[in-house]
Amino acid sequence: MSDEASLSLGKDLTGLETLSAAQIRMILDTAEPFKEISERRIKKVPVLRGKTIVNLFFEASTRTRVSFEFAEKRLSADTVNISSTGSSVVKGETLVDTARNLEAMRIDMVVMRHGSSGAARFLADRIPSSVVNAGDGSHEHPTQGLLDLLTIRDHTEKIEGLKVCIVGDILHSRVARSNIYGLRALGAEVGVCGPRTLLPPAAEELGVHVFSRVEEAIEWADVLNVLRLQLERMHAGYVPSLREYNRVWGITTARLEAAERDLLILHPGPMNRGVEIDSDVADGPHSVILNQVTNGVAVRMAVLYLLAGGRPEKAEAAKQGGES
Ligand code: CP
Fold first, then answer.
1. Cα-flanking dihedrals φ and ψ of residue 314, to 5°?
2. E strand segments, the chain
3. Please, which residues have CB within 8 angstroms of residue 271's CB and are 6 or more apart in sequence?
4. Does the C-beta of 187 come closer than 6 Å to ligand 1?
5. CA-CA distance, 174 to 136, in Å (whole number)?
6. Residue of the nearest CA to atom 5 in ligand 1?
7. In the structure, what pLDDT confidence band is assigned to residue 313 with cuts at 50, 70 and 90?
8. From ligand 1's centre to the CA of 228, what distance in Å?
9. N or C, where is the chain less crowded by C-beta within 10 Å?
10. CA–CA separation, 203 vs 192, rounded Å?
11. Which helix (H) or strand (E) holds 123?
12. CA 64 to ligand 1: nearest atom
């Protein structure tokens, strides 16, 4: 593969597992100049003028859906939002038929959240438009992984060698998987910590340290990425009770103070306050949870720009209204 080919994203973004460190860095570096667009009085540049993007959300979302839409609108794309409840999916239309009908109206990209692992790849292999995975089942949530990386990079000297522990419901978490792939690609050491019932059966095979006590994880880590208990995906008794979970696994001020050094605190949201994270930590001085949300718009702008054929080195000029 030539340098140029290896530094493009190709047609789709369905996960971070298959991206190289150079490709991940390219997305993060492209997001940097796009951050400033959201700080302007008029938050609009003509970078994706003429492109049509469909946001197809088969599962609930606040942050991802809204920030993709902001990213698209701030780059001047034409956007259409479709949710399963308001579409012909409720009448039994298949995913591929839905997408082919959208294709017939000449679209350029589909951003999709779906409850089934692999749905984004399945669709990407069947339609000519670019597909961006906005979360598929328990598989991956690549733009969340990227915005987490960008936020960590904003607050630390370098990701290489950093110790990042993902705490909580790893088993059901697409965020955990995308974080593990992205962080390891950039040279971070990654840990996971949670009740054995909420860890994948062979967690060590993901190339991570596995901590069975949250105090050990806090002692080890520079950064904690705290995950939500995905109560909607839990049809078995994975934890005795939410109160018990907080008592044993919760990220609390008392636990962090025991570490006697400052850890950076991330959470992809939505949070169960008082369960996996206490409010004084979530709203405390070391929390970058809202920075993650802000960075989400810039990262999604970068992904859309690159998939549309934009060159990373032209992002600065493109956002000033010049060449892309
Ligand atoms: N982090 C995240 O995916 O949040 P939403 O479910 O609100 O999009």
1. -100, 5
2. 52-57, 78-83, 109-114, 130-136, 163-167, 189-193, 209-211, 223-226, 264-266
3. 228, 277, 282, 289
4. no
5. 7
6. 61
7. very high
8. 11
9. N
10. 8
11. helix 119-124
12. 8
**Count of CB atoms within 10 A of residue 224's CB?**
29
Report the alpha-carbon distance of residue 214 to residue 220 in Å, rounded.
10
User: Which of the listed residues 56, 58, 64 should we mutate to test ligand 1's pocket, taking the one with most ligand atoms within 8 A of CB?
Assistant: 64
Percent pLDDT > 70 in the chain is 95
- Whole-model pTM? 0.95
**CB neighbour class for 149 (10 Å; exposed up to 12, middle 13-18, buried from 19):** buried
Nearest CA to ligand 1 atom 3: 64
270 close to ligand 1 (CB < 6 Angstrom):
yes
61 pocket-lining for ligand 1 (C-beta < 6 Å): yes
pLDDT-derived band at 241, boundaries 50, 70, 90: confident
pLDDT tens sequence across 104-159: 999 999 999 999 999 999 999 999 999 999 999 999 999 999 999 999 999 998 99
Q: 132 and 304 in contact (C-beta within 8 Å)?
A: yes
59 CA distance to ligand 1 middle (Å) = 10
Backbone angles phi, psi at 8, to 5 degrees: -120, 165
Judge whether 30 and 75 are in contact, CB under 8 Å: no
| 37/295 Cα distance (integer angstroms) | 12
> Which range among 3-7, 68-72, 208-212 shows the weakest confidence by mean pLDDT?
3-7
- Regarding the beta carbon of 268 and ligand 1, being less than 6 Å apart is answered yes
Per the document, the length of the chain is: 324
> Taking 90 as the threshold, does the pLDDT of residue 84 lie above it?
no
Minimum-distance ligand 1 atom for the alpha carbon of 268: 1
Q: Is 293 in the pocket of ligand 1 (CB under 6 A)?
A: no
